[in-house]
Amino acid sequence: MIFTDTRNSSVKTDLRTAVLQGMNPETGGLYMPTFFPKLERTFLERTSTPSFRDVAFESAKLYCSKDIPEDDLQEIIVKCYPFNVPVVPLDPITYVLELFHGPTCAFKDFGARFMAQLMEYFNKDEDKKLHILVATSGDTGSAVGSAFHGLQGIDVTILYPKGKISYLQEKQLSTFTGNVQAFAVDGSFDDCQRLVKTAFTDKEVRAKLRLSSANSINIARLLPQSFYYTYSSLVVKNRSELDNKIENPAIIAIVPSGNFGNLTSGLIAQKTGAPIHGFVAATNANRTIPDWISSGHYRPRTSISTLSNAMDVGAPSNYERIAALYTLDDVKKLIASYWTDDTGTREGIAHCLERTGYIIDPHGAVGWKAWMALRNDGLLKLISGFPNDPELPGLTPSVPSWAQKVLDNRAVGILLETAHPAKFGDTVKTACGREPKIPNRLEEILKLPDQSIPLSNKYADFKSKLLGNLL
Ligand SMILES: *Cc1c(COP(=O)(O)O)cnc(C)c1O
Q1: In angstroms, rounded to a whole number, what is the distance separating the alpha carbons of residues 84 and 66?
Q2: Distance in Å, CA 47 to ligand 1 centroid
Q3: Stretch 441-448: mean pLDDT, rounded?
Q4: Each residue's pLDDT tens digit, 105-148
Q5: How far is residue 323 CA from its own chain's centroid?
Q6: Could you tell me if the CB of 369 is within 6 A of ligand 1?
C-alpha cells in the first residue's frame, strides 16, 4: 500500500516510512492510505463468523502485503492479540464491544501493540536502536509502554505529570523495567509535552538517539482499530436474526470519542467493506466535533477536564483525517453526534446498570447516553423539526441518512466500551453504588515497585538524564 498525507496529496510513501515517521515532517500532515481496498466478498459473507484474529489478518493484509510477507504478518497478528474481543448482548438491540481485555485494560492496546510490532519489524535491520519518546496524561503511556516492553532494538521513555494522573494509571506507567523507562515530571502534562518536543528538535540529542514518537496520529495505530469494527459488525450481522429477529439490520457503531482516532478507524473499516451503516460520535463537554457537525465551523479549543478524562480533547487531531475523507454533508449523513456533561455521564452509568445489569465505565457511559437519546425520542424530535439547543447536552441537530431505520426498529447498535470500569472505580461507585471488580492483571501491577525517575520540568535536567541513561 502507498500512503499519502492529509495536507499534500502528491506525497507518496511506503508503510515503513509512514510508521517510523509517525507524521510527515515536511508538511505536518497525517498519513492515510491512497485508497481503500475491499475485503473479499466471500470472506465478508461467510456464514460462520471468522475469529477476531482472522479478521485482523485479512484486514492487515490489505495495507501490509507489499511490505510484509504473509507468514511474518500472521506472526505479528498472533503476538499483538493474545486476548479476547467479546461482543456482549446488552438488550435486544444493543451489543457492547468490550475493548478492554488487553494488558492495560483500554482499547489503546489494539493500536499500540500493532504499531510496536511493526516498528520492531521495520527496525530489525538497523544497527542503531530506535528511541521512542512519549508524553502522556494517562492511558496512552501505559498502552505504549506495555506494547513495546521487551521488544528488540527499541527503547521507550515515557514522561508523565507526577501526581496529576490517577493512582492506578501511575502504577501502570511507573512499574516497567528493562527497555521502558518512565520519568515522573514535577509539572503539568504541557510541561511533559514541551520536554519531548524540545528533545525532538535538539541536534545533540538527535545525533545520539534515533528518535521516534508513538502518539496517536501514527497510521499504525489507526489501521488495527478498524479490525474490531469489521469483526464485531460481522458477529452482529450473523447473530442479529437469532438475537432480535431483525434480518439485515442497519448496524450503528456508537463511539465514545476524544481525539477521534477510534471513530476514524471505524470509517476506514466501513470503506473496506464492514457492514456498518452509520456512526454515533459521542463526546463529553469537549464538543468540538458535535459543534462542527451542527454549525459547519470547526473551532478547536482548549480542553476541559471531565470524568471521561481520556476524551478530554479540545482540538482533535483526527478531524484532519475525517475532513480529508468526507465533505461535511457526507459526514452529516453518516455520523450522528451527541455530547453530554459529567452529570449525564453519571446518569449513564447508573441507567445502564439499572436497565441491563451491566457496569459501564465513564467513557462507555457517554456512548450509552447517546444511544439512549437516539432510541428514545431524540431522532423523532429532530425529524419533526424540534432540534436540541446545541448549547445543551444532547443530540446535535442534524439527521443522519439512517435515522428512519432506527425509528422503524430496524437498527442495532454496537457500543464500543473503551476501558474497563475498574480503571475508574471511584467514579463508577459514586454514580451507581457498585464497585467494579479489579481484573487480575491490574491487581498484579498494584503490587509492583515504582521504577520511575523523578524529574524537574527543566529541559537540561531531562536531557542529561535521557543521555545519561545511555551509558
Ligand atoms: C483514548 C480513549 C478514548 C478516546 O479515543 P479517541 O480515539 O481519542 O477518540 C476513549 N476512551 C478511552 C478509555 C480512551 O483511553
Answers
A1: 28
A2: 32
A3: 94
A4: 999 999 999 999 999 999 998 888 999 999 887 788 999 999 99
A5: 18
A6: no
Segment 412-427, tens digit of pLDDT: 999 999 999 999 999 9
**Cα 45 to Cα 250: distance, rounded to the nearest angstrom:** 16
Atom of ligand 1 nearest to the CA of 260: 9
Q: What percent of the chain stands above pLDDT 70?
A: 99
Ligand 1 near 108 CB (within 6 A) = yes
Tell me, using a 6 A CB cutoff, whether residue 259 lines ligand 1.
Answer: yes
Place of cell 485482523: 56
Q: What one-letter code names the amino acid at 8?
A: N
Tell me, in angstroms, the distance from the centre of ligand 1 to residue 313's CA.
Answer: 10
Set of cell numbers at residue 312: 478530554
363 lines ligand 1 (CB under 6 A): yes
What is residue 422's DSSP assignment? G
Ligand 1 proximity of 252 Cβ (cutoff 6 Å): no
The residue-averaged pLDDT of 6-20 equals 91
Taking residues 75-99, report their average pLDDT.
97
Mean pLDDT throughout 236-257?
92
Between vectors from CA 434 to CA 432 and to CA 435, what angle results, nearest 5°?
A: 125
Q: How far is the CA of 312 from the centre of ligand 1 (A)?
A: 9
Which contacts qualify for 246-250: CB closer than 8 Å, 24 or more apart? 246/93, 246/409, 246/410, 246/412, 249/93, 249/405, 249/410, 249/411, 249/412, 250/277, 250/278, 250/402, 250/405, 250/406, 250/410, 250/411, 250/412
pTM: 0.95
Give yes or no for residue 190 having a pLDDT over 90. no
Residue 106 beta carbon below 6 angstroms from any ligand 1 atom: yes
